Amino acid sequence: MEYRRIGDIQVSAIGLGEMPMSIEGRPDESRSIRTIHAALDAGVTLIDTADAYHLYADDVGHGESLVAKALASYPGDTSNVLVATKGGHLRPGDGSWTVDSRPEYLKAACEASLKRLGVEAIGLYQHHRPDPKVPYADAIGAIRDLLDAGKIRMAGISNANPAQIREAYDILGGRLVSVQNQYSPQFRSSEPELRLCDELGIAFLPWAPLGGSGRAGQLGERHQAFGRIAAERGVSPQRVCLAWMLAKSPVVIPIPGASRPETILDSVAAVDLKLTPEELAALD
Q1: Residue among 255, 265, 282 at smallest CA distance from 11
Q2: CA–CA separation, 172 vs 152, rounded Å?
Q3: How many whole angstroms separate alpha carbon 60 and alpha carbon 179?
Q4: Which burial class, exposed, middle or buried, applies to 216 when counting CB atoms under 10 A from its CB (0-12, 13-18, 19+)?
Q5: Does the pLDDT value for residue 214 go beyond 80?
Q6: Are 126 and 84 a contacting pair, CB within 8 Å?
Q7: Cβ contact 219:249 at 8 Å
Q8: pLDDT (tens digit, 9 = 90+) per residue, 225-252?
Q9: How far is Cα 95 from Cα 255, in angstroms, rounded to an integer?
Q10: Which residues pair with 35 in a beta bridge?
C-alpha cells in the first residue's frame, strides 16, 4: 500500500468512502461490515463518513455508528486508522439535504459524533458544506474552537472554493489539513482547489471520484479514454481513474465509495497501477 499524509498522520493513498453503506440503496449491515473489514485487510487506513449519511429522521449518524461497529468487531489492529467525519449537512429524512453552519449547531453535532464514534477526540472533523445563512468565518471559527478544545485532532473543510480554503487556512492558523471536494473525470471544476492544496501542502480528498452512486459502472463508456486504457491494461476503468488521480499530486487521496468488498479491493489496487505520461495526457 502506498501512503500519503493528512497533517502529521500517514494514511493509505486510497481511502474508503462510507456513504453508499448508509443512504439510498444501502446494503444490509453484515455486508457493509464485511466491506469495511476488507478495506482494512487491504491496508486502508482512512475511512470517511458523516453524521448526514443516513436515510431516516431517526437514523442520524448511521454511517458513524456503522464505522464504529466495524472497527470494534475487526480482529486486527485499528490504532492507525483515521476516521474522518463531517458536520453541518443534514437530512430531514425525506430524501432532501439541508445545511446548518451555526456555531452552536456545529459544536453540538461534534459532541453527538464523538458519542457515536465512541472516541474522546475525532481524528479528522470537516465542515461539510457552506451555509449561505451563516458567515463562513463564523462556521470555521467553530471548527477552530473544537480544535483548540481538543474535541478534534485535525480540521478539514469540504465543498469549498479557493477563497474559502484560504480563509479557513487563516482562521485555523495554518492548521487546515484537508479539503474534500467533488472531483472525477466528469466533474473537473475543482482543479483550482486541487492546485491550491498542492501549493499549501493540504490533502485533497476527491469525493465521488468514480462519478458518484450508480455512475461508476458507466465510467468507461462515458469517458472513452479511460475505457480504452483500461482494456489495454487489462484492468477496470475505475482503477485507471484512481491511478490517474493519484498521479495528479502527492496531496491527492481519493475516497471512492463502496458497499461491496470486491469494489474497494479493486479501488485499492490503483496504487500499483502506474500510468505512462502518454496515458496520463490522453486521460487529461
Answers
A1: 255
A2: 13
A3: 24
A4: buried
A5: no
A6: yes
A7: no
A8: 999 999 999 999 999 999 999 999 999 9
A9: 23
A10: none
- In whole angstroms, how far apart are CA 97 and each of 25, 52, 105? 17, 9, 16
Question: What would the DSSP string read from start to end of 231-242?
Answer: HHHTS-HHHHHH
pLDDT at 167: 98
Q: Match 467525519 to its residue by C-alpha cell.
A: 85
Q: Residue type at 273?
A: L
d(Cα 265, Cα 35) in Å, to the nearest integer?
A: 9
Q: State how far the Cα of 266 lies from the Cα of 47, in Å rounded to an integer.
A: 16
Calpha distance 84→107 (Å, rounded): 16
**Distance from C-alpha of 142 to C-alpha of 106, rounded to nearest angstrom:** 7
* CATH numbers and ranges of domains, the chain: 3-283 (3.20.20.100)
> Is the torsion defined by CA of 114, 117, 123, 129 positive or negative?
negative
Calculate the average pLDDT of the chain.
Answer: 96
**CA nearest 113: which of 53, 183, 30, 71?**
53
Beta strand 3-6 pairing with 9-12: antiparallel
pLDDT score for 233: 98
CB 138 within 8 A of CB 105: no
Cell numbers for 234: 487489462
Burial class of 277 by CB neighbour count within 10 A (0 to 12, 13 to 18, 19+): exposed
Task: Look at residues 156, 51, 55, 21 and name the one whose alpha carbon lies nearest to residue 114.
Answer: 51
The beta strand positions in 181-256, using DSSP E, are: 203-204
Residue 92 pLDDT grade (very low, low, confident, very high; cuts 50, 70, 90): confident
Mean pLDDT on 43-70: 96
Q: What is the pLDDT of residues 97-130, one digit of tens each?
A: 999 999 999 999 999 999 999 999 999 999 999 9
Instruction: Tell me the one-letter amino acid at 239.
Output: R
Just list the catalytic residues.
53
3-class DSSP state for residue 161? coil
